[in-house]
# Entry
Amino acid sequence: MKLLVMEAKLHLRDWPTLLFTIGLPVGLLIVLGVSIPSFTEVQDGGQRIVDTHAPSTMALLSLLTLSCSVLPAVLATYRQQGVLRRMSTTPVHPARLLGVQLLINLAVGTVSTVILILAGWLVFGSAPPKAWAWFILVFLLGTAALLAIGLVIAALAPSAKSAPGIGSVVMFPLMFLGGMWVPREIMPAPLLAISDFSVAGPFTQALKDTWAGQPPQLMHLAVVAAGLVVFGGLAVRTFRWE
# Structure
């Protein structure tokens, strides 16, 4: 608990990063919804873009920022400065620091998503996710899978300065495959097939389905769960404390 409190204080001191992680998705949702008329027009399925597609992709943006930028940078910095090596000589195993980082990033991602839901409801009248139980399951599973990718980046980054760069190389393709710029509904078949196995694509689609009140497709849940197992196992095998 002391370690959790200490790391939380360090995260709060880095308020520009915290504000960017939480504020960027909310700001984009509001700006795009207000400035682009099609975002608030009812589509063929009876839903508006601000009801399901926009909030789900903005949630993906927030979580990818945490997993591909914030988490790798912190852990790579701790390794480079010898923090992890020093901790390994104490009764507090470095694995506890790793667990604390995961909890803090999960908390930040949860706060960002809750604010995103409230902003959509207050500004555009968008309903919160209708299938709440499924939404929570998808959110936790997808967040864990994305953070596992972040741990792999942290494990492979040779220095603290290189971690954000490597994270960006991973982050932007995942944003694209998740439907950030080209909705999955209009992707060509080959690109959609790649998106279906990218973790980000199934995660975003599952969020959209639960937002609309539908259960997620089992295939999407399976891909996200497989991503958690694969990248989590890879992170465990490749992570270095020093």
Observations:
- Residues 94-124 form the longest helix (31 residues).
- Residues 2-238 form one domain.
- The chain has one domain: 2-238.
